[in-house]
Specification:
single chain, alpha+beta, YojJ-like (1, 2 domains, elongated
Length: 278
């Protein structure tokens, strides 16, 4: 037995190990993409059908096997339709992962000024308990979302951001899209997340912030209308009750990453406290 195992192990080549490693990484990332979405339950159903097909073939249950085999054939078309959002999300994830994260090339002085302006605006909105949603574009373009709102193309300033979100003004309802050092548009509509595992107290504003972060590599900043609490969303994950010092640090990392990856920081500061439904 020992000799048999040794002979098998000796036949394994380096390329075989690399092949196994690549498959493992792909499966792991696929599970990460599907986790927490409706596709997770659908995937379990597909796996069950495949298992039943093999069992029916082994037991020579020809009628059941014929039905299940044709169901799988027809199901391939249905999968492309039903899984369309998840497939798009997965392809975008692969595209973002294939490139290195880099800054926006604005220079340290300009970066610090932008982070200060945005942080100042968010701090003021938080103290006044004015709801706000700011989305900062990175590598994935948000032009389609920006087109749903009102074009501004203005330089970033705390005063302008505050005025946009003042209640009962034309642009206060919706999200602000920021690209580089400019406010591209306001009153934009964002896609809501399909994640059903989120806290029940998260309202539409927070779910929209998570939704756009699932479909892009953007950073969303949310101010709660009920409590004034500040949250951020990135890569489909929300971190709640962020203080202004941490927010300014996050913004510095978005514009000019130099200390540590933003994901590491988000893992450290991710909160679980509750806030209002807005």
């Amino acid at each position: 037995m020992t000799e048999f195992i040794a002979s098998r192990l000796s036949s394994i080549r380096i390329r075989d190990l690399v092949d196994i490693l690549i498959v493992a990484v792909l499966v792991y990332n696929l599970i990460k993409i599907l986790r927490g979405t409706r596709a997770e339950q659908l995937s379990k159903g597909i796996i069950l059908i495949l298992v039943l097909t093999q069992i029916s073939e082994s037991l020579e249950l020809y009628t059941i096997n014929w039905i299940l085999s044709h169901l799988i054939t027809l199901g391939m078309v249905a999968i492309l339709i039903v899984f369309q959002p998840e497939l798009r999300r997965g392809l975008e994830f692969i595209g973002r992962s294939s490139s290195f994260r880099k800054g926006m090339g604005l220079g340290a002085k300009r970066t610090n000024a932008l982070a200060t302006e945005i942080t100042s605006a968010v701090g003021s909105l938080s103290r006044q308990k004015i709801g706000a949603l700011i989305v900062i574009e990175r590598q994935t373009g948000l032009s389609e979302i920006a087109d749903t709102g009102t074009a501004l193309d203005s330089f970033i300033s705390s005063g302008l951001l505050i005025n946009i979100f003042i209640p009962n003004t034309p642009l206060h309802d919706g999200a602000v899209i920021i690209r580089g050092d400019r406010i591209v548009a306001a009153a934009c509509f964002l896609p809501l997340t399909d994640n059903r595992n989120l806290a029940k107290d998260l309202g539409t504003r927070h779910r929209a912030a998570i939704g756009v972060s699932e479909r892009s590599d953007s950073l969303s900043i949310i101010v709660s209308e009920e409590t004034g609490a500040i949250s951020t969303a990135e890569n489909g994950k929300i971190s709640r009750h962020i203080d202004l010092t941490t927010l300014e640090y996050i913004l510095d990392q978005v514009y000019e990453p130099k200390v540590q990856p933003l994901e590491n920081l988000m893992d450290k500061i991710g909160g679980t406290d509750h806030e209002g439904k807005d």
